[in-house]
Amino acid sequence: MYQKLILASGSPRRRALLSRLGINFQYVTSSISEDFNENNDYTEEVIRLATMKAYDVARIYDEAFIIGADTIVICENKVLGKPITYEKAFEMLKFLSGKTHEVITGVAVINKNKKFIKQFYDKTEVTFKNLSDELIKWYIENDEPYDKAGAYGIQGMGCLLVEKINGSYENVVGLPVSKLFEVFKEIGISPYRGL
C-alpha cells in the first residue's frame, strides 16, 4: 500500500540515511526553533522537539506520514549544541577530547488524518581520541563542525576524531533508521515485498 512519507528536516545527512532504504519520500524543513530545555529529561526533550517538528510540517501535509527528528550530544551532563563560531567549536571539541559522550536522537512519526503517532529515541556512546590542538584546528578549518551538534560529523572528516562507538552509527549521523524501519512496517511502508 502506498503511503506518502515526508521527512520534516532539511538535514542532508538524514535525507541520505533515509534514501538508503530505497523508500520514496519528500522532505520539508520544519520552522520549529530547536530550543532545548536542559531542565527536562534529555530523552523526553529530544522526543518533544522531534514531535513539534513533525506536527509543524503536518499542518500543511495532514494526509502524509511525517518523520520528525532531533539529535543532541551530551558529555558530563552538559548538552552540546551546534557551534556558531570557531571559538565555540574549538571549545566543544577540546571538551570532548579523550572522553565518552552520548548521542541521543528522538524520533516522532505522525499522521494527523489517521491520528497516528509513534515516538521513540535511540542512544549511542561515542568515545573520542585524545585530540591535539593542531588536529582540532585543522578539523574546524574544513568548516564541518558548524551545523552539527557537538561540533562534529562522524560521517565526514569527523570520523578521524572517533576512537570507538557503542550503539547505532546511523543514530550518531542523525536518524536511527533500524528502529524507524520497525515503524514503517507497522504503517505498511517497505522497500521490498517480504515485509
From TrEMBL:
Organism of origin: Deferribacter desulfuricans (strain DSM 14783 / JCM 11476 / NBRC 101012 / SSM1)
For this UniProt entry, what is the primary localization, expressed as one broad class? Answer: cytoplasm
Write down the superkingdom of origin: Bacteria
The similarity comment for this entry is: Belongs to the Maf family. YceF subfamily. Belongs to the Maf family. YhdE subfamily.
Give the protein name, as stated in the record: dTTP/UTP pyrophosphatase
- What enzyme category does the UniProt record give? hydrolase
* Cofactors required: a divalent metal cation
Annotated site location: Important for substrate specificity: 13, 71, 155
What functional role does this protein have?
Nucleoside triphosphate pyrophosphatase that hydrolyzes 7-methyl-GTP (m(7)GTP). May have a dual role in cell division arrest and in preventing the incorporation of modified nucleotides into cellular nucleic acids.
Keyword Repeat assigned to the entry: answer is: no
Q: Which Pfam families match?
A: Maf
- GO cellular component entries: cytoplasm
**Where located?**
Cytoplasm
Which GO terms of the molecular function aspect are on file?
dTTP diphosphatase activity; UTP diphosphatase activity
**Which residues does the entry assign to the active site, renumbered to this chain?**
70
Q: Does the keyword Cytoplasm apply?
A: yes
What are the EC numbers? 3.6.1.9
Checking PANTHER family in the record gives: BIFUNCTIONAL DTTP/UTP PYROPHOSPHATASE/METHYLTRANSFERASE PROTEIN-RELATED (PTHR43213), BIFUNCTIONAL DTTP_UTP PYROPHOSPHATASE_METHYLTRANSFERASE PROTEIN-RELATED (PTHR43213:SF5)
